[in-house]
Amino acid sequence: MKRESNAVDFWRGFALITIFIDHIPGIFYARYTLINFSIADAADLFVFLAGWSLRLMADGGGRRMPTRDVMLRLFGRALELYAAQVLITMIAIAMLATSALELDNPLLLQWHNAAAVFNDPVPTHIGLAVLTHQLGYFDILPLYVVLMLMAPFFALIDRVAPHWLLPISLTIYLVVLAFRITLPTWPVSGTWFFNPLAWQAVFVLGFTFAKNDGIGAWVRRHIVTLRLAALPVVIAGVLIVKLGWWPDPTKVPDPKLFFIADKTYVTPIRLIQFLSLVAVFSIAFRYIRRLEDWPYLGRPIGGLIGLFAMLGRNSLYVFCIGSLLSLMAQIVRYYYHGSVGGDSVVVLIGIAVMAFTAWLAELRQRARPAPSAQPS
C-alpha cells in the first residue's frame, strides 16, 4: 500500500507542476507538457487521481468506517474545497485590480472572464459565491467541489451495490453526451468549462480502479494485455495532436460529442486515450524509483521523486498557490515579455514556492499533538 500511495502522490505532483506551467500561456516550457503530445492532459490525470484518493479516504485507510462517518467526512472535504475556491478567486481578482491600478492598464480588468466582476459586481459576486461565475484558469477547483459533493453518494452506492457504481456513472456520462446536458453560468451567459456531469466518469473510474476487488482487481490481473492494447491508442493520440488529424465536427454523425475531441465533456476520444495513457505508464513509476540507485544521479533523482510526492500529498494547498502563481507569471510576462531565461526563472521560482507551501503544510501536520490514547 505504501508503494501504491507513493506512486499516486508522485503522479499527482507531476500533474500539479504541469497544470502550473500550462496555465501560463506562451511560456517556453509549455511546449513540452502533456497537452502537446496527447489528447488528454494533466487535468484528466488530476481528476482521475482525485477519484483514486477518494477510495483511500472513503475506506478510512483500510479501516472500515461507518457509512455515516464516511459521508460526513466527504461533505466536509467539499466544504474545504469550496472555501479554497472562494479564497483564491478573491485573491486573483485583487491581483488583477492591483495590477490594473499600479500599471495604469484597465485592460487587465477584462482578463480571464473578470470583466463582469468590475462592471456588474452585485450579481457577479453572487455568481462567484455559488460557483456559477468562474475566472479562466480558476475553473478546475469548482469541478472538484461538485465532484466531492457527489462523492458521498458514490461512496454510498459503492457500499450498498458496488457493482452498480461504474455502470450508473457511465450511463450518466453517455446521456450527458447524447443530449449535451451541462451546467449554465450566471450572470454571464454560458456553460461550465469543465462539465461535472461528464467529468464524474473520470472521477469514478479512478475510484473504482483503486479498489482491490471488482474491476480494479480485473485490471491488475490483465494489465500486461491492456498495456499492449493501449500502446497503439497512445501513439494514435500523439499523431492526432502533432499532425492535426482532428475529426471534422461537420462530418461526424449525431450525437457529435461521441466522435469529436472536447475537453468540456471529456468525450470518448479523450477518455479512451487517457485511460490508454494510464495503462501504458502505470509501470513507469517502478522504473523511476530504480533510478535512485544510479551512481551520482541517484540522490538528485531521489530528491526529485520526493519533491513530486510531497507536492502530491498536499495537493489542495499546492494547487491554490500554483493557480495564483500562474496568474502572477502571466502578469509579469505581459509586461516584461517572455524569454527562455526569464521563463526558466518563472518556472523555478514557481516550483520553489509550491514546494515551500507543501513543506509548510507537512511541518504543520507534524507539529500537531498526537491524539491522546483512549483507555481500553
Molecular structure report:
- With 376 residues, this protein is mostly helical.
- Helices cover 67% and strands 1% of the residues.
- The chain has a domain at 42-220.
- It has helices at 2-22, 42-58, 67-102, 115-119, 121-129, 140-160, 165-179, 196-209, 215-221, 223-243, 268-281, 284-290, 298-313, 315-336, 340-367, and strands spanning 184-185, 190-191.
- Strands 1-2 form a two-stranded antiparallel sheet.
- Helix 1 crosses helix 13 and helix 14 runs antiparallel to helix 15.
List the helices and strands and how they pair.
Elements: H1 2-22, H2 42-58, H3 67-102, H4 115-119, H5 121-129, H6 140-160, H7 165-179, E1 184-185, E2 190-191, H8 196-209, H9 215-221, H10 223-243, H11 268-281, H12 284-290, H13 298-313, H14 315-336, H15 340-367
Strand order across the largest sheet: 1-2
Number of strands: 2
- The mean pLDDT is 91
Radius of gyration: 21 Å
- Range of helix content: 55-70%
SSE order in H/E notation? HHHHHHHEEHHHHHHHH
List keywords for this structure.
single chain, mainly alpha, two-stranded antiparallel sheet, 376 residues, 15 helices
In short:
It contains 15 helices and 2 strands. With 376 residues, it is mostly helical.
